[in-house]
């Protein structure tokens, strides 16, 4: 079978450590082209991962003989690059948040439908083993009725990981549009929707820029969320935590389910009868050493293309998770609860 020919737009850290590394490990993929406005960076990644072509303009890359394109650019370019690739007949895997507005998300979805190509959004938390186990248990009714939840994603900030450090686009509103909520919070809105199997109907939020002197986007946010069946909970996203927190806790009728909240066990179920179940299912993906090696995102994208099946996180799913974050911004501005 001929290998899928892939191009990657954006050669920063997410491309280097996730997309390119995982494409290179997939036997069904050939990395053909890499694009970055920093030509030296594009050539460096091309040499490292064996790509024959480099570009500084994404419009040139999407014209090439490619099957698929990964979009690893600053957030404001997600929609235009994705749409250009789809219109050029390529399948697209776009980093999160998928867009900077609901209209942009709709335009991306429409472009995919018109082209007859797949659009996937890179929400990797659905592929974490502990999260999949939680979804399985909750769907089976094993824990009874769910009453509440709390979920958080925080770390010291992107300057320690981004290719441009403290000068990164992550801190610039005109390029990032949104800060910690778009970098981390949207992962958790997607995760909670996935685990609970419900949509969020209301959001109230407090959003601040308090930890980063060089930022004009949010670096701390706390959301209160309500689902369609009345489950309420909190979501925190932050670039101010000195140690990473990527934990989710579900409070249910028959127990408390702790995910990635214990240093030894990825799943801890504290049952109502006083007993406890503990599972070690591997580490969650992290920028720190010892984290998950493969996100599962790239392999799922490739499998979706080869099978012709819609990916788990298609454009519509990405849009639903984005809408919660957009609602949080609106709530913070209006100081009102926002109906989604």
Automatic annotation (TrEMBL):
GFO/IDH/MocA-like oxidoreductase domain residues: 131-257
Span of domain Gfo/Idh/MocA-like oxidoreductase N-terminal: 4-123
Transmembrane segments: none
InterPro entries cross-referenced by the UniProt entry: Gfo/Idh/MocA-like_OxRdtase_N, Gfo/Idh/MocA_Oxidoreductases, GFO_IDH_MocA-like_dom, Glc-Fru_OxRdtase_bac, NAD(P)-bd_dom_sf
Superkingdom of this protein's organism: Bacteria
Stated name of the protein: Gfo/Idh/MocA family protein
Protein's organism: Jeotgalibacillus terrae
